[in-house]
Amino acid sequence: MGLLSGKTALVTGAARGIGKAIALKYASEGANVAFTDLVIDEEHGGLQTEREIAALGVKAKGYASNAADFAQTEEVVKRVKEEFGSVDILVNNAGITKDGLMLRMTEAQWDAVIAVNLKSAFNFIHACVPVMMRQRGGSIINMASVVGVHGNAGQANYAASKAGLIALAKSVGQEMGPKGIRANAIAPGFIDTAMTQALPENIRKEWISKIPLRRGGTVDDIASCAVFLASDMSSYISGQVIQIDGGMNM
């Protein structure tokens, strides 16, 4: 019996990266996993992710959906409820970056990041909370970032969206606590992914020199925290922001 046996998790933006790691970790703990991404096919990894989750002995299905689209989100959550029977865990992980200095940032760059990173979380929470209320409980996890806590030059749109996810989790936690629904945020720091591994070596070394643990985090570091926040081990934790950054921002 895993920590999440009998539960259904819905993870957005999970065909690759951190979202995929969370989906697989949830499956390894016994959860059935529904996940979304913009495209679910072989080329973009969605079908492979679906197979890897199912290979762990749980039910798995990927749903092609634009998380920033309110109507599409409502339809996806309806289908997940029909096909899985419940939605016990929601992880709002879908996200993009379109970096640029404020004076050079276009309206399109701003709007795209806010829509995918922040509005998508509103969409999925709005659709999932009624399901969780009928179940008398659930766990919502917003994937924020340390830049949402501290800001970052050249990422005003991204930082604002991640700060919004933190405030959204706190607000939902206050509203939904009486219904047994918890909401928290995870704020990763420098995580070793394909994106950060592509950075110039001198930039990577500069980042790591600022981290007391002297290494980047892994997607498993994030996924393990996501399991904790989804499980009954954190049943009295809500409205919190957990920074997973190796001590970079103490």
UniProtKB/TrEMBL annotation:
It comes from the Bacteria. The active site is at residue 158. SMART domains: PKS_KR. Its EC number is 1.1.1.100. It comes from Prevotella dentalis (strain ATCC 49559 / DSM 3688 / JCM 13448 / NCTC 12043 / ES 2772) (Mitsuokella dentalis). Keywords: Fatty acid biosynthesis, Fatty acid metabolism, Lipid biosynthesis, Lipid metabolism, NADP, Oxidoreductase. NADP(+) binds at residues 13-16, 93, 158-162, 191. SUPFAM superfamilies: NAD(P)-binding Rossmann-fold domains. GO terms for biological process: fatty acid biosynthetic process. Homotetramer. It catalyses: a (3R)-hydroxyacyl-[ACP] + NADP(+) = a 3-oxoacyl-[ACP] + NADPH + H(+). Belongs to the short-chain dehydrogenases/reductases (SDR) family. This is 3-oxoacyl-[acyl-carrier-protein] reductase. The gene is fabG2.
